């Protein structure tokens, strides 16, 4: 299927590795010019080079910055001021017990996982509406659907974004601008690896044992890959997905046990 987005421009956050990189690679594969953002310049440029080599007909820009800061967002939007596609993505806040978190911890989580996506949407959505095309995808977490007790900061901040998007998405779709959230479950990324390392230490067991048990507990008996996550993101950004908006789409290998 031709997604009919060749020549469009995308701003992809957290794109040097993991799920963000998967999204950038998939969009570039559809002929989309991508501006990729991440904090670490060396890793980011290596990713950009790989995307360029695989897709000679697209432009790949890099912006090394912290997208969760106002200064970082200014740099990113200066490089890509009028994206047709926006993929928001920022690392999740630390795990822990809510009794140990200060107000500053909560504000940091809100800044990264709720307010940063909102600021990026605010800066780009009106231009998308004026041009008659826009696709906004927020990478959130399966914890929005099935909260995880040790991820309280993430549960709260990402749920706040989810509520905001639910209202806004219904006001933009008539101008062919959709806003959706992708909720990843266990994907083979650095974030998952860090949680399994922590679990292995707490349980005084090996990382291999934790990894095997985690896979076995998922109906798919495996972890997802950034490439398949990116492919799904690219479809949501396609011309054919213009009737899909305000949705929270869970990609978790069937881990969530509910019907709704």
Characterization of the model:
- With 260 residues, the chain is an alpha/beta fold.
- 47% of the residues lie in helices and 14% in strands.
- It has helices at 18-29, 41-54, 70-79, 103-131, 152-172, 190-203, 207-216, 226-236; strands at 9-12, 33-38, 60-64, 85-88, 134-139, 177-184, 248-251.
- Strands 3-2-1-4-5-6-7 form a seven-stranded parallel β-sheet, sandwiched between helices.
- Strand 4 (85-88), helix 4 (103-131) and strand 5 (134-139) form a beta-alpha-beta unit.
- Helix 1 (18-29) crosses helix 8 (226-236).
- It is globular, with a radius of gyration of 18 Å.
Shape: globular
User: Total helix count?
Assistant: 8
Strand fraction band? 5-15%
Q: Which radius of gyration do the C-alpha atoms yield?
A: 18 Å
| Stretches with pLDDT under 50, minimum 5 residues | none
Number of strands: 7
| Biggest sheet features | 7 strands, parallel
What structural class do helix, strand and pairing data support? alpha/beta
Strand order of the largest sheet: 3-2-1-4-5-6-7
Average pLDDT across residues?
Answer: 94
Query: Could you give the order of the helices and strands?
Result: EHEHEHEHEHEHHHE
Query: How widely separated are the two ends?
Result: 29 Å
Question: Approximately how much helix is present in the residues?
Answer: 40-55%
């Amino acid at each position: 299927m031709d997604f009919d987005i060749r020549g469009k421009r995308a701003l992809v956050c957290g794109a040097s590795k993991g799920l963000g990189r998967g999204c950038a690679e998939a969009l570039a594969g559809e002929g989309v010019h991508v501006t990729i953002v991440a904090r670490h310049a060396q890793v980011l440029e290596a990713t950009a080079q790989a995307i360029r080599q695989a897709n000679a007909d697209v432009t790949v820009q890099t912006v090394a910055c912290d997208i969760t800061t106002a200064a970082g967002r200014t740099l990113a939007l200066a490089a890509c001021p009028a994206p047709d596609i926006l993929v928001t993505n920022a690392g999740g806040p630390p795990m822990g017990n809510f009794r140990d978190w200060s107000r500053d911890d909560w504000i940091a989580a809100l800044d990264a996982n709720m307010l940063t996506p909102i600021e990026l949407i605010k800066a780009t959505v009106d231009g998308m509406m004026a041009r008659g095309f826009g696709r906004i995808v927020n990478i959130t977490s399966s914890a929005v659907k099935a909260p995880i007790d040790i991820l309280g900061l993430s549960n709260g901040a990402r749920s706040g974004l989810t509520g905001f998007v639910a209202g806004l998405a219904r006001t933009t779709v008539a101008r062919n601008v959709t806003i959706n959230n992708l909720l990843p479950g266990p994907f083979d990324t650095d974030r998952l690896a860090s949680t399994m390392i922590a679990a292995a230490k707490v349980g005084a067991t090996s990382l291999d044992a934790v990894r095997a048990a985690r896979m076995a507990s998922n109906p798919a008996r495996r972890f997802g890959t950034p490439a398949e996550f990116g492919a799904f993101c690219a479809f949501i950004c396609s011309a054919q997905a213009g009737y899909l908006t305000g949705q929270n789409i869970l990609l978790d290998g069937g881990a969530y046990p509910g019907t709704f």
